Amino acid sequence: MTTTTLAVLVPLLPFLGAAAGLLLGRTAPGFVRPLAVLPTLTAFALAVLVAVRQGGDKPLDAATQLTPTGSVPIDLALHIDGFAALVAVLVGLVATCVQIYSTGYLRDDPRYPSYAALVSLFTSAMLLVVYSGDLMVLLVGWEIMGICSYFLVGHYWETPEARAASLKAFLVTKLGDVPFLIGLFALATDAGSFRITRILATVADGGLDHPTLVALLLLAGVAGKSAQFPLHTWLPDAMAGPTPVSALIHAATMVAAGVYFVARLLPVFAASSAALVVLAVMAALTMAGSGLAALAQDDIKRVLAYSTIGQLGYMTGALAVGDRGAAVFHLLSHGAFKALLFLAAGVIIHASGTNSLAAMSRMSHLRARVPDAFWTMTVALLALAAIPPFSGFFSKESVLGAAEHAATGHTLTGPVEHVPAAAGWTVLVAGLLTALLTAAYAARLWLLAFRGQGTDAPDHGRQPLPMTVVLWVLAVPSLALGSLAYGRLPDWFDGDDLAPTLTTSVLGTGAALIGALATYAAWRSARARAARAPLGAVAAHPDADAATVEAEAIASHTPAYGDVASAPDPADPGRLLLGPLHRHAAVGFHLDAVYSALFVRPVRAGASLVRFLDREVVDTYVSGAGALPRLLGAAVRKAQTGNVQTYVSALLAGTVVLVVAALVVATGA
Predict the structure, then answer these.
(1) Nearby residues of 299 by Cβ (< 8 Å), 6 or more positions away
(2) Among 53, 118, 158, 341, which is most exposed with the fewest C-beta within 10 angstroms?
């Protein structure tokens, strides 16, 4: 079987699995789980085979015209280079782990068939984005992911949090997709094609007429899809969906799509120095702001959500300094340990009956109840904090090293010839600050979840085997991917060195250690206050499946603590570290309130005005136009008495009137 055929099957198999799962979900429920797992697992195996055959060599291109358009053609095209081959392997691995995990997590969920089908469709769409060589076909996968996220985030639609989160995710990402679509058409108009290879050739020849405008339009869509400032606000709220969905969105699909898109078309963005500076500023604000917000969250999944936003900021920062190899390296590393973090968080929520870190900090022996989640999450948090030799250290240092090179004027061997020094310094400073914040909130999460004191944590027995096995599978790349890959990946990418540099390694690791030690000191200082202000767990049904426990925990967090994001916990080390900034960081620095004032309220006011004009003005004219004939009809109807004498009298009277009128007219004439 040719490599092209294998590549076609990679996104096709999950799509067929999704279709079969939807058709057989009710009539043959016994086939649902095999149809969820096996096509995705097979697609993962084929993606590995495609990557082995591609081997980082010359890109594989294949195309056939999808439909004649009369102007710019649309081709069903594949473009598989080292970036695409490895990202597809990551997508397949994470999607397979999520599907296996979900068989235990949602074992009693009546909507599991539709859930599993949507996850398969989600996976297929992301693989289409990864392998596509035509921007219009890529857009199809891009938009399918958006609609799948809407349904999956809203899986617990009985809760108002899930309904609001799914709608918010859909609207915010669509807000970015509008300029994104305009940018795609502008790019294709300049290049005369939607084919990625022809667009890159046009850029190399200097054929783009408006590179800055096109790049900024495309960045709007990337900011929405990859949850970058200022369109990042949907991602923390999306934690109202099931935990496996969160793992899939954060690690390998949706948010990774925007970063991958920029990496694929980096020469387009590099054609404008202004676009690179904008991208660097966006990355810096995203990294720093999300780090502060993560330090103030009480919901364990919201901590991880803001963590994802910050790590995506590292990736966009690497792209801003022209090193897409470092960006994709961190995307691969982050995908492994972030999927592990979310799936381990699902086990912890199930065991503790709550998603609140404040409540977990009042529980003893939680780590003994979930030993698999404890050890694997510890590995993942160390990778997140970029502590050597875990994978996150090597990938994050490749980003900081690229920023240092850009700041000091070093040139890269990739497609970007010149990067503004301002972009390099912006990413470098923000990256070092974020390294400190990342270690701080990672240490806070570990201490509050696993070093609690108080009543014994609930004992629900051993977690389902599918939920624990995948944790250890993902722990392997979280631990070893970075050290094994940083020397080999340049051959798959643009050839730029990804090895850690001494300066940034010392600064980055030092910042991480400072953040972790400061958090530990704050936790020790605030720990005594926990006994004086006890906060009980938000108990769920202890015998329910993990999905039910999570849905109840999400729904009961706000009634118990007064806020979806934080809890009034004086023993929280994050509150001590942030001081007066804590209340602002807990609500995402009031960006939702700003957007509500600037956009939501004016739109609602405009809608109210339109409704008033429609009902009170337009309807008045319409009603008036109908009222006049009704009045005339009523008057005429009163004359229809059915009395023949009345009719004859009226006829004679009318005749007399006409005769008199005729005489008057004749006399006047």
Answers:
(1) 239, 355, 356, 357, 557, 564, 565
(2) 158
pLDDT score recorded for residue 663 = 82
State which of 40-49, 621-630, 655-664 shows the largest mean pLDDT.
40-49
Give dist(CA 400, CA 556) in Å, integer: 41
Query: Beta strands of 392-482 (E only): which ranges?
Result: 455-456
Phi, psi of 66 (to 5 degrees): -75, -45
Q: What is the mean pLDDT of the chain?
A: 88
Count, in order, helices (H) and strands (E) of the chain.
31, 4
d(CA 407, CA 320): 12
The b-or-e profile of 211-244 (16+ CB within 10 A means b, else e) is beebbbbbbbbbbbbbbbbbbbbbbbbbbbbbbb
Q: What is the dihedral of CA 285, 289, 291, 297, to 10 degrees?
A: -160
Rounded Cα distance, 379 and 466, in Å: 19
Total-model pTM? 0.90
Of the pLDDT bands very low, low, confident and very high (cuts 50, 70, 90), residue 529 is low
The torsion angle over the Cα atoms of residues 550, 553, 558 and 560, rounded to 10 degrees, is -170
Residue range 398-425: average pLDDT?
Answer: 85
Kindly provide the b/e burial profile for residues 455-468, where b requires at least 16 CB atoms within 10 angstroms of the residue's own CB: eebbebeebbebbb
How many CB atoms are located within 10 Å of the residue 284 CB?
25
> Shortest CA distance to 452 belongs to which of 340, 543, 534, 346?
534
Whether residue 447 has pLDDT greater than 60: yes
For the residues 384-403, what does the mean pLDDT come to?
Answer: 94
Report the Cα 391 to chain-centroid distance in Å. 23
HSE-CB at 255 with a 13 A cutoff on CA atoms is 35
- Residue-wise pLDDT tens digits, 229-257: 999 999 999 988 899 999 999 998 889 99
Task: Supply the pLDDT for residue 548.
Answer: 73
Query: CA-CA distance, 211 to 593, in Å (whole number)?
Result: 34
Give a three-class secondary structure readout of 123-185. HHHHHHHHHECEHHHHHHHHHHHHHHHHHHHCCCCCCHHHHHHHHHHHHHHHHHHHHHHHHHH
Structure tokens at 291: 């780090």
